[in-house]
Design brief:
The structure holds 2 protein chains of 2 kinds. Helix content of chain A is about 40%, strand content about 25%. By secondary structure, chain A is of the alpha+beta class. Chain A folds into 5 domains: about 5-150, Four Helix Bundle (Hemerythrin (Met), subunit A) (Up-down Bundle), CATH 1.20.120; about 165-270, Alpha-Beta Plaits (2-Layer Sandwich); about 315-370; about 375-555, Heat Shock Protein 90 (2-Layer Sandwich); about 560-685, SH3 Domains (SH3 type barrels, Roll). In chain A, the strands form 5 sheets. Chain A has a 7-stranded mixed β-sheet with strand order 5-6-8-10-11-13-12. A 6-stranded mixed β-sheet of chain A has the order 16-20-21-19-18-17. Chain A has a 5-stranded mixed barrel with strand order 14-15-24-23-22. Chain B has one domain (about 1-80). Chain B is an alpha+beta fold. In chain B, α1 (about 15-25) packs parallel to α2. Classes of the chains: A alpha+beta, B alpha+beta. At the A-B interface, α2, α8 and β2 of A face α1, α2 and β5 of B. β2 (about 210-220) of chain A pairs parallel with β5 of chain B, so a sheet runs across the interface.
């Protein structure tokens, strides 16, 4: 038996998903308000939310979505073209739904002001549409509107149609291949209670599997108390509308103990599907939104296509992944074990090969369970662009590419906030202040923001580009020197200069807006991305624009690493930060008293870090030119890690370390190698040359 | 079931025996009851109780029964249930 708390948790999860989807769908609908399939999708979400909210006593949310649903139902059933100002009301309504849900879940008594205003506007619009009152004209004062809305507040739920018929129509719109719709009529005999049957028993049984269940009790034959007897049924008819995965035979089984005349099951067919629209066939679509910002989506899939999915706790997927990790280790052990390999038996060798292939396949498939397309995150960004565009008054053309790129689920959840900040920053500060400034620079009045996701060198890159004014390097340097972040004579590469803007409290914005410009954002963005074991690169050209590239590993559970050896110890350097490895000539190695050793590589002076010193390994001191240097990019600049040998590149399953090792900053994790040995994964940002800073 | 002055508070989740008891309790007192309230969080689970409430309301329409007057109830177990308490 599921407890109330567990049910509430399910509600929160489902409601959050519905609201997130509404948020995305409403913007897509704003871009193409003729897409009535999408409107149906929005309607279905609101309908489900209404039922769930009321079931949990979230009546304020239930009340709001009830009226919103009525409005959506009006437009989807009449297929009337939605006016631009009313589209705005739809978008506002979704905002109110989000806010009210927050209030309900956190037991906040006071509702946002927008609740009443938006609800009244919805009711008013419905009244106008149903010709109850004359259409609103802008001359009317808000007071007039309010009074009119109140006057018609008590409209019946389904004023124009029979409630049962209306319910059937609504449920028909929710039908899918996997969900069947039935109308079940119960006409139970007077003695049904004595036989142990009650209408609610059947409702409960049908409801156990139903996606949606609605019933209509006819109480007209109920007598006054003088002639009434509780033990005798006097409800003449109950009509049930059930949307359920059950097939006809299974539904019939539920009522098999009733007399034949006591029930009637009528399967309801789904309405014929609308003809496929040309727009859905297009590989590339360009949509215009009401806010004058364009969205270009390079995609080939239909967002509304139903997918067959099951919900699995991510904890279980993680456990499965861990088990597969162990399997990979065991398989590697067998494959690399010299004694086993020396067995000259073809059958055994072939079996080991087959085992290896199957293990790899399982590993890939389990990996793919964690991977989700970045599409939903990108869809959310459309809203961010729309709102920021309105707030700043800048016209934006949004280009989205690579939305099918898959990324680890854990990363997706942490990616939204950094992306929102970068996009707002790009619109607010990246793009020119106004169209005049853009046209003066020979650009289109509309600013372009591009959001892309793609694979590169085994990593995932998510980039946000603008075609704005670019970062003013001189101003960044000036500010860095002014704040003491840099000395006056330091030579920095462009990338290093641009990286300065992600330092805490660093902002070159002339004016501070509520969107960005306080310098408290980009450093948080950088920290968030680094927590995902990723990094941010910035490219910018003055007058041409800026690109922020977030580079992330494919997954958080596996790392692509360079295996290196120092004495008997094996370490793993994440390949994401490896620039190159080389054996230096003696001439390019220098030592400065108190500052450690350096290697000069293409005129760049790079500090050398001896791993043997970092981990206090007992080794005879060797010279850098007798060893190998691995040049890596760190947040403090490049360093050259001195090692004895390069063992190769390998994907390893990351294992967390115990409490004592977790305190060692230079190590970010551990991994079990094929031969059973343990290797430590280096945290290169924490490596510092001895005597250096 | 609880009676406080002229307000009767009932649980909506009653067995048939309890519904009969309620009917027997209300029948002689129907002229004195002004309002029937339902316990917070209780969920309607019998059409016999719904019928009894409708019967009471038909007998004395001035009795306030907020639950009945809403003409619908929603629960996870039974979905959305609609009724009309007046002809």
């Amino acid at each position: 038996m599921i407890s109330q708390e567990e049910l509430k948790a399910i509600f929160i999860e489902e409601a959050t998903e519905i609201v997130e989807k509404l948020d995305v769908d409403i913007i897509r609908f704003e871009e193409n308000s003729n897409d009535f399939e999408l409107l149906n999708e929005i309607f279905r979400g609101v309908h489900t939310l209404k039922g769930n909210s009321n079931a949990f006593g979230f009546t304020r949310l239930g009340e709001f979505v009830h009226h919103f649903e009525d409005l959506l139902d009006y437009y989807r059933s009449t297929k009337e073209r939605i006016e631009a100002n009313n589209l705005e009301l739809f978008v506002e309504s979704v905002d109110v739904v989000k806010e009210v849900m927050g209030c309900e879940l956190n037991s906040i008594k006071e509702l946002p002001q927008s609740y009443t205003v938006c609800l009244e506007n919805i009711k008013k619009l419905l009244d106008v549409k149903k010709n109850k009152i004359p259409a609103y004209t802008p001359q009317e004062s808000p007071e007039v509107l309010k009074n009119l809305a109140l006057e018609f507040d008590e409209l019946p739920l389904f004023p124009d149609e029979d409630a049962l018929e209306q319910s059937i129509k609504i449920h028909q719109a929710m039908q899918t291949e996997a969900l069947n719709l039935y109308k079940i009529t119960l006409t139970l005999d007077e003695d049904c209670y004595k036989r142990g049957f009650d209408h609610f028993i059947f409702l409960k049984i049908v409801g156990e599997q139903a996606k949606s269940l609605e019933s209509f009790f006819s109480m007209k034959n109920i007598q006054t108390i003088e002639d009434f007897q509780s033990t005798q049924n006097s409800i003449d008819k109950v009509d049930i509308v059930a949307l359920t995965p059950l097939v006809y035979g299974e539904i019939e089984e539920i009522f098999e103990f009733l007399f034949d005349h006591e029930y009637k099951i009528t399967p309801i067919q789904a309405p014929p599907p609308p003809p496929q629209k040309e727009a859905e066939k297009e590989v590339e679509t360009v949509c215009k939104s009401a806010a004058n910002n364009n969205t270009e989506t390079v995609s080939s899939t239909n967002a509304n296509a139903p997918k067959s999915t099951i919900r699995i706790d991510t904890y279980k997927v993680d456990e499965l992944f861990d088990s597969v990790g162990e399997l990979v280790i065991a398989q590697n052990f067998i494959a690399q074990n010299r004694e086993i390999r020396s067995i000259e038996n073809e059958t055994i060798n072939r079996t080991i090969e087959v085992l290896s292939k199957i293990t790899k396949k399982i590993q890939d498939r389990v990996m793919s369970l964690r991977m989700v397309a970045i599409k939903d995150t990108f869809e959310k960004m459309k809203r961010v662009v729309r709102d920021t565009s309105k707030k700043t008054g800048k016209e934006i053309h949004l280009i989205i590419q690579g939305e099918e790129t898959e990324i680890d689920k854990t990363m997706i959840d942490s990616l939204s906030d950094p992306l929102i900040h970068i996009i707002r920053n790009a619109i607010d500060h990246g793009l020119e202040s106004n169209t005049f400034e853009r046209e003066k620079a020979g650009k289109n009045a509309e600013g372009i923001i591009s959001l892309r996701a793609f694979h590169k060198s085994g990593n995932i890159v998510i980039s946000v580009s603008d075609d704005g004014r670019g970062i003013d390097k001189e101003r960044v340097l000036e500010k860095a020197i002014e704040r003491g972040v840099l000395g006056e004579n330091e030579n920095l590469t462009d990338a290093q200069i641009f990286a300065l803007i992600m330092q805490p409290g660093f902002s070159t914005a002339q004016t501070i807006s509520d969107l960005s410009g306080r310098g408290v954002g980009l450093d948080v963005v950088k920290t968030s991305i680094e927590k995902l074991r990723g990094k941010i690169e910035i490219e910018s050209k003055k007058g041409e624009g800026t690109t922020f590239s977030i580079i992330l590993p494919l997954t958080l559970a596996i790392i692509d690493g360079m295996l290196v050896q120092v004495k008997e110890e094996i370490y793993i350097i994440p390949t994401l930060c490896v620039v190159e490895s080389f054996r230096p000539e003696k001439e390019i190695v220098h030592a400065a008293k108190g500052k450690g050793e350096f290697v000069t590589l293409r005129k760049e002076c790079i500090p050398i870090v001896r791993l043997s010193d970092v981990f206090n390994l007992d080794v005879a001191k060797s010279e850098p030119w007798e060893s190998i240097l691995v040049c890596v990019e760190t947040e403090g600049g490049r360093i050259a890690i001195m090692i004895d040998e390069l063992l190769g590149r390998q994907q390893v399953v990351i294992k967390t370390l115990g409490k004592s090792l977790a305190r060692v900053r230079e190590i970010s994790g551990g991994a079990i190698l094929g031969n059973g040995d343990i290797a430590l994964i280096l945290n290169v940002d924490a490596l510092r040359p001895l005597g250096g800073s | 079931m609880k009676i406080d002055g002229d307000i009767l508070t009932i649980d909506l989740n009653l067995s048939m025996d309890e519904i009969v008891t309620l009917e027997e309790f209300v029948r002689p007192r129907i002229e004195y009851i002004e309002r029937i309230e339902t316990e917070d969080g209780s969920v309607l689970s019998s059409s016999a109780l719904l019928s009894l409430l409708v019967s009471i309301k038909k007998t004395r329409p001035e009795i306030e029964i907020p639950f009945l007057e809403k003409e619908q109830t929603i629960s996870f177990a039974s979905g959305t249930v609609h009724w009309k308490y007046h002809d």
